[in-house]
Amino acid sequence: MSRSVSTTAARVVSIALHPFVVFAALAMLAAWRVDPASLPRTALGIGVAIMIVSLFIWQRRRGGHWETVDASRRQERPLLYALALLVAGGYWLWMGGRASATSNGVLAAVAMLCVAGIANRWIKLSLHMASLAFAGVASWPLSPVVAMLAVTLLPLLGWARLKMARHTLPEVLGGVLLGLVAGTGLLVTA
Hints:
single chain; mainly alpha; 8 helices; about 75% helix; globular; membrane; transmembrane helix; transmembrane
């Protein structure tokens, strides 16, 4: 595979398995499997959240504040973490702020982001890897097939993040570990 083709392939993989996509798919799966009546509300909440974050990212890139849409530089991350926490908290409130499959998942994801935000002082953990690993563990009770697919895709996503030079190997592996721990924490407390 030529360099440009492999870089393009890595970019496609990174976009297809972006944390927004992964978390949206996980929330929709949880709503569908646990509380089908909440599916329209979940979809609307996800759509609004993605729109808010997308507008923010567009503004940061257009204003020259971020090099990439991924907030790939460590110093770009704190604002990304703050926005993600605000959006996740708003989504949790939108869903009723009560214990449910999706709201507990949102709280676990928020805890994961908090740990990544604190760790950012020393290491820029891959949120792509963390979200996919989290989804792999968290989706197991909902759909073992989806869970296995997510876990199977981790090496491909890791390759893509390394190929695009968005992360180092320790950042990729640290992201996987963070996602696995957060997903396991969600299952243990459920």
